[in-house]
Amino acid sequence: MRELNNNWAQEAYIKAYRFAAEKHIGQKVPGTDWSYLAHLSMVSMEVMAALSHETDRDGNLVVQVAILHDTIEDTDATYDELKSEFGRHVAEGVLALTKDGAIEKQHQIEDSLKRIKLHSKEIWMVKLAERITNLQPPPSHWSSEKKKKYLKQAKLILNELRSGSDFLSYRLTAKILEYQSYI
């Protein structure tokens, strides 16, 4: 495969995007009429921007995991299916980013971060990129308390995964500062 930016291939992106498009069909970004693919595109755009600065990373891994990061959590996709289609590293990265529904909701972020930190910095990059993407103006129905909790989680993600990507850490820091205006 011919690689772009010397660290990710267009074909790897397209393969993951097609798989995600099929799995997330009909899903919407919560609180919008947007296709869920908008969220996946924004997360992958964040990691691709980072890869243009951090060229020592496995670009195919991070781009594919960025696009597929919610497939186990939000669709009928399985770890084994991802492993078969994209390999063990991608499947394990997606699994690390998947919330464990057996854990109480208030403890899921800590559990998720603990599992993410067992993986390569590419997986850390996806979590940073996802939170950057999610720090948009909050839905109007969110309470002040929910907004504060979400901001606190963003700060925790930044503190725990900061060394995963200088570029994305800078972006997340800026988004956190912007988000404070909604509190």
TrEMBL record:
Entry superkingdom: Bacteria
GO molecular function annotations of the record: guanosine-3',5'-bis(diphosphate) 3'-diphosphatase activity
Keyword Nuclease attributed: no
Key words, A-Z: Hydrolase
InterPro entries (alphabetical): MESH1 (IPR052194)
Keyword Hydrolase: yes
Pfam families given in the database record: HD_4
SUPFAM superfamilies registered for this protein in UniProt: HD-domain/PDEase-like
The protein's name in its UniProt record: Bifunctional (P)ppGpp synthetase/guanosine-3',5'-bis(Diphosphate) 3'-pyrophosphohydrolase
Native source organism of the sequence: Desulfobacter hydrogenophilus
